Amino acid sequence: PSRTFHGNNRLLTSQIISYYESINQYKKELPEYFNFASDILDEWARLEKDGKKPANPAFWWVNEEGEEVKWSFEELGSLSRKAANVLSEACGLQRGDRVVAVLPRVPEWWLVNVACMRAGIVLIPGTSQLTAKDILYRLQASKAKCFITNDTLAPAVESVLPESQFLKSKLIVGRGNRDGWLNLKELL
Hints:
globular, Rossmann fold, 9 strands, ATP-binding
């Protein structure tokens, strides 16, 4: 039973503790290794493909102008594998390497997140309000080997390159090219 307090039903503290203890007694085997991209995303894509799960968008993005990007689980899985290959091959990153990603919330933001999970690369997100000094600090403290950003923030990254001894590759998200930068969209 629950006690009514100001019209709301609330569980008594003893009930909450009892419920917690009953959950805590359940012993579920946890896998030694877990990867969201391959263990969840790829599994949902397989279930959709086999008709065992209704087709729903895994990702649905709409910007202020009404542009939409909608990916199924299979499309997100495929694109994230390609992006993971870009990080591993074109950028030369390995499991455990660090990447700083400073992007507005564009579809590539989520794609890079899933690609990093898939490849075992550590993602260090940053806000697009970072200054050159902030970027340098993050690069030095993290020893990141790759930086991912757009045309707007690329000059700030370039201004601190001489002091970022660990940075090996730079990825730009956008339509244009920039000297010394790899273009994510072209590589995908």
